[in-house]
């Protein structure tokens, strides 16, 4: 039995009382070096939030002492919420006086001070900060004669950072800076810091997105050790490697991506078998062949977790030599793949499948728009470009409809949000917002990747090997019931008060399709569901109504896919022995948690850049008038979404014709004197009155109908 297990078992004993580390050592009969190992293990377990040391230096298990460990979600008003490490536990409200110097993102220990009544969250106070998340903070510098302040860009950090004289590094007022915290906040005392880096003045070219890159601690440059390793990788596949693999170079494979994509990590092939079934091939770049486990490349890829796409640039997970070079499935060159062949019948059932280490030579690099123009509109120019693969594309379209129909039958929820693409000029200034539809080509590749991911996940589940799943747990019924109250205002309802089936939510998305409130209701529904995440334990994917799901198809830009490839390759080669399985068991939950975190970080950074550029776009349209839909109601104002997807806030204080209040129970806003009501989904006319590029917000004023 390991020392950690022994400590936990001791502390789980019924009559255990918190002990000094020396007492624990005596209890275990340890001395000399063994005592040092015990003390180091206690330190590690305390840092991880498994145990806690009280003011008298006595140790006990966190979950036996009315304590909860998690990440603090801050709020600009000074309070916060604890997002518990225990995924089954609800968020805990932390009032301002209970924050005790913790900042947004910190890993903390919370003591429960008030049990949640019906409709209210539990309350707590932070008693210990296990890990600081903000060694550096990005913000705007404001100087005076003898000192300065940095106002954080992230409004969830509710303190300004005090910069003492001599620590400003020549920063000037209205410059974006990176500040290092030198003294953490205390009761009634702001944190202190020193300016490490000056990013540029607000409004200077490139400063805005660079600030977001620094805020989310994204690494633009690869360390020299990683670059050197990438430079040593040959950019051609050698014959010795080809001889060890299944040669698929005569198979008609091709890629299908957006026009500006460079990291082509998936190719497809198709044929119809004599029995009428389809044989679909999904060929994924074999990144694991080049990124050796434990290498500098691997450690950096793990640290990054995924590629991040920020409108005018990509921060890749892997250096260009791999992502755009030897791993990218470019046409006309030999490339290594992990290929999955699936025999699929006319009902969308996968009758048989095979996973092989292959080598392909893609025939063509297809672009989504060309394929969609050909299949949807029979466009002559597109047909000419695609003549060599036209039959295959028609087969793929048939199979796409079959697979989609199968997903619909089982209850898979399809959120068909209009996506906005912001067009930038050479200086990074937004000049247009273009709504993009998911056309047939995008849907085809989406369906093929989904069925491939499901096939891989189910295959590995039945092997009983340690594996990394992509899960989406069942929703919290309290949130679904709240959502049901919202949609009642529109005349909709979903059945099920104890549990809800995806089919019921799918029915609702179909019911609202094409209606003015479609985007609004789908958005509220999405917010009512849990977030998908990575897990070392198998569970359902609720949104896809899928029993088994994993991410396999994008190893160039997602670390979990790379990890999945390694496991599969070791399994099909028969080299995953019990020792290897034990090692995997230990690391997979850590990989799952870390990559779920980096995925959230990337989504937040991408959202911040989008909000910034939308605010910048609207800042040149102050005074313009538009029609929009009320998309959200709060105690301080209502949000209105325009047809171009821009969302702005109408403050009640700016509504001069009456004093307005929010009726939370019936979910509408009403005028105290006139009785005038505004509800979710109402179409209103607004004027743009402000856009804040620092806070990335847009303000509207409501116009009389």
Helix content: 25-40%
Radius of gyration: 28 Å
Shape, principal axes of CA atoms: globular
Structural class: alpha+beta
Output the number of helix runs.
Answer: 17
Q: Give, in spatial order, the strands making up the sheet with the most strands.
A: 6-5-4-7-8
**In percent, how much strand structure appears in the residues?**
25-35%
Please, could you describe this protein's structure?
- There is one protein chain.
- The chain has 17 helices and 34 strands.
- The longest helix has 42 residues, at 578-619.
- The protein folds into six domains: 3-63, Arc Repressor Mutant, subunit A; 66-131, OB fold (Dihydrolipoamide Acetyltransferase, E2P); 136-202, OB fold (Dihydrolipoamide Acetyltransferase, E2P), CATH 2.40.50.700; 224-471 and 541-609, no CATH class; 477-529, no CATH class; 621-702, OB fold (Dihydrolipoamide Acetyltransferase, E2P), CATH 2.40.50.140.
- Helix content is 31%, strand content 28%.
- The strands form ten sheets. It has a five-stranded antiparallel β-sheet. Strands 11-10-9-12-13 form a five-stranded antiparallel β-sheet, with helices on one face.
- Helix 4 (207-215) packs antiparallel against helix 17, helix 11 crosses helix 12 and helix 13 (477-488) packs antiparallel against helix 15 (518-528).
- It has 705 residues and is an alpha+beta fold.
- It starts with a helix and ends with a strand.
């Amino acid at each position: 039995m390991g020392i950690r297990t022994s400590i936990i078992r001791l502390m789980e004993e019924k009559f255990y009382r918190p002990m000094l580390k020396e007492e624990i050592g005596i209890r275990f009969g340890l001395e000399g070096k063994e005592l040092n190992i015990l003390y180091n293990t206690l330190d590690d377990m305390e840092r991880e939030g498994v145990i806690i040391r009280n003011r008298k230096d006595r140790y006990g298990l966190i979950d036996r002492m009315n304590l909860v460990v998690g990440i603090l979600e801050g709020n600009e008003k000074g309070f916060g919420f604890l997002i518990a490490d225990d995924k089954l536990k609800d968020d805990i409200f932390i009032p301002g006086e209970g924050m005790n110097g913790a900042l947004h993102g910190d890993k903390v220990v919370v003591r429960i001070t008030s049990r949640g009544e019906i409709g209210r969250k539990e309350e707590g106070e932070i008693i210990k900060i296990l890990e600081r998340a903000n060694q550096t903070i990005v913000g705007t510098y404001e100087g005076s004669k003898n000192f300065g302040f940095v106002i954080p860009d992230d409004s969830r950090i509710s303190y300004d950072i005090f910069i003492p004289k001599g620590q400003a590094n020549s920063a000037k007022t209205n410059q974006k800076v990176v500040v290092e915290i030198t003294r953490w906040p205390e009761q009634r005392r702001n944190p202190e810091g020193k300016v490490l880096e000056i990013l540029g003045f607000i409004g200077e070219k490139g400063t805005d997105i660079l600030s977001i890159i620094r805020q989310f601690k994204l690494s633009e440059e690869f360390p020299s050790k990683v670059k050197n390793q990438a430079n040593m990788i040959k950019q051609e596949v050698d014959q010795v490697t080809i001889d060890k693999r299944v040669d698929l170079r005569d198979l008609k494979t091709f890629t299908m991506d957006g026009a500006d994509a460079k990291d082509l990590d998936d190719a497809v092939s198709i044929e119809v078998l004599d029995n009428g079934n389809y044989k679909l091939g999904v060929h994924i770049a074999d990144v694991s062949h080049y990124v050796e486990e434990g290498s500098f490349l691997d450690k950096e890829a793990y640290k990054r977790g995924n590629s991040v796409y920020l409108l005018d640039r990509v921060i890749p997970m892997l250096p260009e030599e791999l992502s755009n070079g030897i791993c990218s499935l470019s046409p006309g060159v030999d490339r290594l793949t992990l290929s999955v062949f699936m025999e699929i019948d006319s009902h969308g059932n996968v009758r048989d499948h095979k996973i092989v280490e292959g080598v392909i030579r893609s025939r063509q690099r297809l672009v989504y728009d060309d394929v969609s123009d050909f299949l949807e509109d029979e466009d002559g120019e597109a047909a000419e470009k695609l003549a060599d693969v036209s039959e295959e594309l028609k087969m793929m379209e048939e199979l796409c409809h079959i697979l989609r129909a199968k997903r619909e039958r089982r209850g898979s929820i399809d959120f068909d949000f209009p996506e906005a693409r912001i067009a930038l000029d050479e200086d990074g200034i937004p000049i247009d917002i273009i709504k993009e539809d998911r056309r047939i080509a995008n849907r085809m590749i989406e369906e093929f990747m989904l069925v491939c991911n499901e096939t891989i996940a189910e295959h590995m589940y039945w092997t009983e090997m340690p594996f990394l799943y992509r899960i989406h747990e069942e929703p919290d019924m309290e949130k679904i019931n709240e959502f049901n109250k919202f949609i009642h205002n529109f005349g909709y309802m979903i059945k099920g008060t104890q549990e809800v089936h995806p089919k019921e939510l799918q029915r609702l998305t179909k019911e609202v399709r094409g209606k003015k409130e479609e985007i609004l209701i789908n958005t509220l529904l999405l917010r009512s569901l849990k977030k998908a995440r990575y897990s070392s334990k198998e569970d359902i994917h609720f949104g896809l109504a899928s029993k088994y799901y994993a991410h396999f198809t994008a190893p160039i830009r997602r670390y979990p896919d790379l990890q999945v490839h390694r496991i599969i390759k070791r399994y099909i080669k028969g080299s995953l022995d019990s020792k290897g399985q034990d090692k995997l068991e230990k690391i997979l939950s850590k990989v799952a948690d870390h990559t779920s975190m980096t995925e959230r970080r990337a989504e937040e950074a991408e959202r911040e850049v989008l909000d910034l550029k939308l605010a910048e776009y609207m800042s040149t349209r102050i005074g313009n008038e538009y029609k929009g839909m009320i998309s959200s109601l709060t105690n301080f104002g209502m949000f209105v979404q325009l047809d171009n997807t821009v969302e702005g806030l109408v403050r009640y204080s700016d509504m001069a014709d009456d004093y307005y209040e929010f009726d939370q129970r019936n979910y509408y806003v009403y005028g105290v004197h006139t009785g005038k009501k505004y509800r979710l989904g109402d179409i209103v006319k607004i004027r743009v009155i402000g856009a804040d590029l620092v806070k990335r917000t847009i303000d509207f004023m409501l116009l009389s109908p």
